[in-house]
Design a protein that fits this description.
The protein has 5 helices and 5 strands; from the N terminus they run ααβαββαβαβ. The protein is of the alpha/beta class. The chain folds into 2 domains: about 45 residues, no CATH class; about 100 residues, Glycogen Phosphorylase B (Rossmann fold), CATH 3.40.50. This is Glycosyltransferase family 1 protein.
Length: about 170
């Protein structure tokens, strides 16, 4: 029997359970056999929008990438509610002894607060950038998750940027 406000996960977990499967409901929709979906509804999977043909990486980014081993990419995109002090501390800890590409997204981080060795990015196509990195640290949003899954680069989901105590 299905609990209120829960998807019928094969594992019996509710969407509100603290540990939910890594697959999304859309990934499982065909397996779950949603009878109430319209016949004209089609699951497409992730939409991949490649870099524009006329996009060129800024020379400063190319120089940074060529100056050493592949860096760690850290980006939290449209994640709001970031504890800036925690994020600066986390980026600084990763940057100790490593080269870091940091995309501040909506974090509002002042790049001047970051240590040397951290290259602050503007919007950069993931399909171009991520294969040039050693590790991707991100919030687990759909776009970055799918982009990094298309690469052979290791990834780490980071939630340390959000204060959990209120």
């Amino acid at each position: 029997m299905r609990r209120a406000n829960c998807a019928p996960w094969p594992t019996g977990l509710c969407l509100r359970d603290p540990i939910a499967p890594a697959r999304t409901l859309a990934d499982l929709a065909a397996e779950l056999g949603y009878a109430d979906w319209s016949a004209h509804a089609e699951l497409t999977g992730a939409w991949h929008v490649p870099a524009r043909a006329d996009w060129r990486a800024p020379q400063a980014l190319l120089d940074f990438l060529e100056a050493g081993p592949p860096p760690v990419y850290i980006g939290f995109g449209s994640m709001a509610g970031i504890d800036q002090a925690t994020l600066v501390d986390a980026v600084s800890a990763v940057a100790a002894g490593r080269r870091v590409l940091f995309h501040p997204g909506w974090s509002g981080i002042d790049p001047a607060r970051l240590p040397e060795g951290v290259f602050v990015l503007g919007d950069t196509p993931h399909d171009w950038l991520l294969p040039r990195t050693a590790l991707v640290v991100h919030r687990g949003g759909a776009g970055t998750s799918h982009a990094v899954a298309r690469t052979a680069v290791d990834r780490l989901l980071g939630s340390a940027a959000r204060r959990l105590d209120g």
